[in-house]
Write a structure and sequence with these properties.
Order of helices and strands: HHEEEEEHEHHHEEHHEEH
Shape: globular
CATH architecture of the largest domain: Sandwich
Helix content: 40-55%
Number of helices: 9
Distance between the termini: 34 Å
CATH superfamily of the largest domain: Jelly Rolls
Largest sheet: 6 strands, antiparallel
Radius of gyration: 19 Å
C-alpha cells in the first residue's frame, strides 16, 4: 500500500508530472511498495525483467561486473527516478544489478502493466522518450569525465553538482558512502582519498559526509565544470 508520504513523493516524480493521474492509475493498479534496507538487491545482472522500479525514497545503485571480478557502481538513482526502463521496454535481460545504497522505499510496477499502458498512452511514451534521452546524456557525461578529467577533477565536478551554494562558498552533504562515490567516479577508495587531499589546496574541508567548499569558482575553474544537464 502507498503511504501518504509515498503518494506525495510520487506526485513530485518526473514520471507522474509527465503522464498525469489517469495513466498513473493504470500503472498503480497492481503495483506494490517495499521498504528495503541498505544492501538489499532489487534485481541481478542477466535476470529477466518482471517489474519497473521507481525510487520513492532513499538511493539505489546500479552495479555491473565482469566474470570473476567484484561489482562496480555504474550510477546511483535517487527519489523519483525510474530504474533501467530500457530493459522493460525492450523485454531484454538486465545489463546491470540494482542494490539499495541507503534504506529505501521502492515502487514495483508489474512490467506487463507498464508495457500495455505504454502501447496505448501517448503521454507515457513521450515520458519514456525523454527519460531515455536524459539517461543518454548522463552516459555521455560519464564517458567525457573518464576520458577528459583527472580523478581530482572528477571529484571536484561531483561536489559542485551536489553543492548547496552559499555566497562564494558552499556546503556539501555526501549522499552515499565514500566507497560508493569512488566506484561511481571510476576510481579506487585510495585514489578518492588522494583526490580529496589534492582538493584541500582548493578549499575543500570537513570530515565524514559533511564538507565545506570555500571557493566554488576555484573548483569550477579547476574541474572545467559544465553544469548543463
Amino acid at each position: 500500500m502507498l503511504r501518504l508520504a509515498d503518494e506525495e513523493r510520487l506526485k513530485r516524480s518526473p514520471l507522474h508530472r509527465a503522464i498525469g493521474e489517469p495513466a498513473m492509475a493504470l500503472l498503480l493498479a497492481n503495483a506494490s511498495v517495499q521498504a528495503l534496507p541498505a544492501g538489499a538487491r532489487l534485481f541481478e545482472q542477466g535476470e529477466e525483467v518482471r517489474f519497473l522500479h521507481l525510487v520513492l525514497s532513499g538511493r539505489v545503485s546500479l552495479l555491473a561486473k565482469a566474470l570473476g571480478e567484484p561489482d562496480t557502481v555504474i550510477e546511483v538513482f535517487a527519489e523519483g527516478e525510474l530504474l533501467v526502463a530500457p530493459a522493460a521496454i525492450l523485454s531484454l535481460p538486465y545489463l546491470v544489478s540494482a542494490e539499495v545504497t541507503t534504506a529505501a522505499r521502492v515502487l514495483f510496477i508489474p512490467v506487463e502493466d507498464f508495457r500495455s499502458t505504454l502501447e496505448r498512452d501517448p503521454a507515457l511514451a513521450r515520458a519514456m522518450a525523454e527519460l531515455l534521452a536524459r539517461h543518454w546524456r548522463v552516459l555521455v557525461r560519464q564517458i567525457k569525465d573518464l576520458k577528459l578529467r583527472s580523478s581530482a577533477q572528477r571529484l571536484a565536478a561531483y561536489l559542485l553538482a551536489i553543492a548547496e551554494l552559499r555566497g562564494g562558498g558552499a556546503s556539501v552533504s555526501l549522499p552515499e558512502p565514500r566507497r560508493v562515490i569512488a566506484a561511481r567516479l571510476g576510481m579506487t577508495p585510495e585514489s578518492l582519498s588522494r583526490a580529496f587531499a589534492r582538493l584541500k589546496r582548493l578549499g575543500v574541508s570537513g570530515k565524514g559526509r559533511r564538507l565545506q567548499l570555500e571557493s566554488v569558482e576555484q573548483l569550477r575553474s579547476f574541474s572545467a565544470y559544465d553544469d548543463q544537464r
